[in-house]
Predict the 3D structure of the following.
Amino acid sequence: GESVGLHLPTLSVQEGDNSIINCAYSNSASDYFIWYKQESGKGPQFIIDIRSNMDKRQGQRVTVLLNKTVKHLSLQIAATQPGDSAVYFCAENLSIQGAQKLVFGQGTRLTINP
Amino acid sequence: NAGVMQNPRHLVRRRGQEARLRCSPMKGHSHVYWYRQLPEEGLKFMVYLQKENIIDESGMPKERFSAEFPKEGPSILRIQQVVRGDSAAYFCASSPEGQGVNQPQHFGDGTRLSIL
């Protein structure tokens, strides 16, 4: 079926620590994945993406890992800051006959302890 | 640097009224997507449009809901005869022309629809 899920609905970390947010997806044919950050009252903000021909991609303070064998995706945030507090969604891009849509997971709420 | 613009940001309607939600994509983007989000949940796909064409409406209820993206002007999501269950945040996203596959969708800040 079409589903993208997250293992943990909430994650609390100390400021300065690294955060790891996990995601499982179910469609083995998916070839493109995106992480979004959503702050209260705002729309999802693009963080980083990865295509299925890669297993790792790095951005500024963020790294996405893709394990196609177990259909698992993770987002690592280095040196977590108060501004990182938000809900994080992974999304799986489904492309069928030229049409595409994102399938979102439920989300993980990241809170930062001072 | 205009992103995806949605209006209104908040919309209150009484049961039975019509709701119209507008979305202007990013400059140069001709693919528009609408999603719906309930509190504490992820976004759910509703419809995917290109200019003047509906490409995929598999996530949109068959009745009362319609979407359009005319040649000129914003994309419109229209909900007729609203019911309390239509209360949600509705988000629009866009992606570039000619690069529809495997390109990130960029989102607006949504319209929060409340039904009295």
Q: What stands out?
A: Chain B touches chain A at residues 4, 6, 33, 35, 40-45, 48, 55-56, 58-59, 91, 93, 100-102, 104-110 (CB under 8 Å). The two ends of chain B are 36 Å apart (CA to CA). Chain B is about 0% helix and 50% strand.
